[in-house]
Write a structure and sequence with these properties.
about 500 residues; OB fold (Dihydrolipoamide Acetyltransferase, E2P); eight-stranded mixed sheet; 2 domains; single chain; 15 helices; BirA Bifunctional Protein, domain 2
Length: about 500
């Protein structure tokens, strides 16, 4: 018998034993009662009585009601865990009825129990509840992983996140940090008079990004629909309508590959504000991320995968063109400022060159190949080619580029923003270009959204907008190497 099969057999034996205990309890009472109400959390008790001696606690005579999952069994002591922390329970032979003590003997690690009694401190200094009442609330039929090894298989931790959360305090801390990150982003915007809104997750026309959508079908409407790839076009419709500062924490869906940085379902924060440009958006984004780092980690100097990233210093701002030259000192401006020279340069650098690639697209391919991963400290890359920015406003002095930026930290894109294109005729022309690209085989090119053009024709004020990858931001703030670490239930390939 292999080690794996032996382990499986042992687990099946334990499950069978626990089912037998459950069956025995069913003959006596409902084994899943729902009438126990705890009055106290473990961590609250630990903090409130941290300085109380044994003698002081005996004088207080404080009666408590606690509940939680059994994590360890130490002779007459049981260690339970609740949402806040851990506390011990003492099986007092003199206080507990015989029937209760008999039932306790059938308890296993992982069971969820409720207990009442006076609060005491042991000779070793540990706080405990001297039980005079106790009851099993939920029988755990499956045994917990070995306490010393936990869930060693990272993929199993993703597949069975519920077990990961039971066993690993670090995982629980990470997802508390995720919640705090979202709180920080929301608070920063609402404090500046932004209105949080909700827009459709199912759309008849997917827009707002270059991405391949998931396709579904609405039977009642007899209509093909798409899960949204971005909320952008709906949020800008709201700015047209007079909501001049809006944001949404949006679940987006993109039918793309899985990686340490990509999950087909992910969270973005998008915000838009009128009478502002991309420079204002950079300022706001920089301040917001700095505030989030301070609130979540207590500092703006972050340790990420062995590298220190400083969010406290002013973020670097440099154009796409200049960044290529900075990180490729062997290149001159002439090597990337014309289509033919850029093609030659790209081939020399090992970049795939396609016939439909214009100069702007080639520059971006060179940037992606030679620059992006080297942008370690917070850096705003600006002046993106208009060719790759179908929703961004052209620059007044140089129409080849747009008033757009992307923020990179630790070699990863974290945010994308720009001065919004509010010229309906220019936007319609760019949509038509995207449609032509789609017909030529580009599955990520945009659709023509006629209603959005209609909205622009009513008048979109000068506006700036930004999308921030929340999952990647949480990775940064929690020192997580993979996006799967910061998603409670990441998408995985089916098990064989």
């Amino acid at each position: 018998m292999t080690e794996t099969s032996a382990t499986a057999a042992d687990e099946n034996r334990l499950i069978a034993e626990r089912r037998a205990k459950l069956d025995a309890l069913r003959r006596v009472r409902n084994p899943f009662p729902n009438d126990f109400r705890r009055d106290n959390l473990a961590d609250t008790l630990q903090r409130e009585h941290a300085d109380d001696t044994r003698e002081r606690l005996e004088q207080l005579g404080k009666r408590v009601k606690v509940a939680g999952r059994i994590m360890r069994m130490r002779g007459p002591f049981l260690v339970i865990s609740d949402v806040s922390g851990q506390i011990q329970l003492y099986v007092n032979r003199e206080l507990l009825p015989d029937a209760t003590r008999a039932e306790i003997k059938t308890w296993d690690m992982g069971d969820i129990v409720g207990a009442e009694g006076l609060l005491h401190r042991s000779g070793k200094g540990d706080l405990y509840v001297d039980m005079d009442q106790a009851r099993l609330l939920t029988k755990a039929l499956r045994p917990l992983p070995d306490k010393y090894h936990g869930l060693a298989d990272r993929e199993l931790r993703y597949r069975q996140r519920y077990v990961d959360l039971i066993m690993n305090e670090e995982t629980r801390r990470l997802f508390r940090a995720r919640s705090l990150t979202l709180d920080s982003l929301r608070d920063y915007l609402t404090d500046r008079d932004f209105l949080e809104v909700e827009t459709p997750a199912m759309q008849s026309i997917p827009g707002g990004a270059a991405a391949r959508p998931f396709v579904t079908y609405h039977n009642a409407l007899d209509l093909e629909m798409f899960l949204r790839i971005a909320p952008e076009l709906y949020l800008k419709r709201l700015v047209v309508g007079g909501f001049e500062r809006v944001f949404e924490v949006a679940r987006n869906f993109r039918n793309e590959g899985l990686s340490t940085r990509h999950n087909p379902e992910f969270t973005m924060l998008e915000y838009y504000f009128a009478y502002a440009d991309y420079r204002d958006a950079m300022d706001l984004t920089e301040g917001m991320l700095r505030a989030a780092a301070q609130r979540v980690t207590g500092a703006t100097l972050l340790d990420y995968q062995g590298e220190q990233l400083d969010l406290g210093k002013p973020f670097v701002r440099i154009s796409v063109f200049d960044s290529i030259l900075q990180f490729n000192p062997s290149l001159s401006a002439a090597d990337i400022d014309s289509l033919e020279r850029a093609r030659t340069t790209a081939r020399h650098l090992g970049v795939e060159v396609r016939p439909q690639h214009g100069l702007g697209k080639l520059q971006m391919e060179i940037f992606d190949k030679t620059v992006e991963s080297r942008l370690r400290q917070p850096t705003f890359i600006t002046a993106y080619p208009t060719e790759v920015s179908p929703l961004a406003r052209r620059n007044d002095e140089n129409p080849f580029i747009s008033d757009r930026f992307e923020l990179f930290i630790g070699g990863r894109e974290l945010a994308n923003g720009f001065s919004e294109l509010n010229d309906p005729e220019d936007q319609a022309a760019r949509f038509r270009e995207q449609v032509a690209m789609k017909e030529a085989g580009d599955s990520e090119a945009m659709h023509f959204d006629a209603d959005y053009i209609t909205a622009l024709e009513y008048g979109l004020p000068p506006t700036a907008g930004v999308g921030i990858g929340v999952d990647r931001l949480v990775m940064l703030l929690t020192d997580a190497p993979s996006i799967r670490d910061v998603l409670l239930f990441p998408h995985l390939r089916p098990q064989a």
